[in-house]
Amino acid sequence: MPLEGMDRRDYLESKFRGPEGADQVYARVRQFATDSGLDLDFDAIKLTPNTFDAHRLIRWAKSTGNQSAVVQQLFHRYFERGEDIFDPDTLLDVAESAEMEREVVARLLASDADREALAEEEEAARGMGVGGVPCFVIGGRYVVQGAQDVETWKQILSEIDAALKNQAGESGAAP
Description:
Layout: E1 6-7, H1 8-15, H2 19-35, E2 47-48, H3 52-64, H4 67-80, H5 88-97, H6 102-110, H7 115-127, E3 135-138, E4 142-145, H8 150-171
Antiparallel strand pairs: 1-2, 3-4
Helix pairs in contact: 1-2, 3-4, 4-5, 5-6
C-alpha cells in the first residue's frame, strides 16, 4: 500500500478477490454494524489509509492514560465520518480531543519516535497469524480473526478452555 493510502474500493476488491467478494464481505459487515447499533458510513470512506502513525498515537496515548479516548476518536472519525486518519492534522485533532498535548504529539509525529518498536510489534503480530482487524490475541497464543458473533465467541472460548485444561493435565500444572 502506498505510504498515504489507497482508494478504498480498490483496496477492498484486491483484498476480497474482486468486486463481488468485496460486496459480499461488506454486506455482512454493514448488517453486523446495523444489528449492533453502530452508525457507520462506509460510503464516506474514500481511502484506506496507512495507519502506522495512528498506531504510534495510540501507543503514546497509553502512557498518558488516554488510549481509549484516542481509539474511540480514530474509529469515529474514520468509520463514521470518513476522515483521513493518515493526515497529521487529523491525528493532532484526535490527540487534542483526547486531552493530549498537541505540540508534543506534533513533535513526536515529525520524528521517528517508536517507529522501530512498532514495526517490531507488527512483525511479531504477523508471525502469530494476525492479518487484519479486528483481531484478538488471547493469552498471547490464540489468534481470532474478524468480528465474531456471540455464539462463535462462546465456541472459541470453550475450545481454548479445553486446550488449556488439556495442557495443564499433561504438565500437572493449573491453567
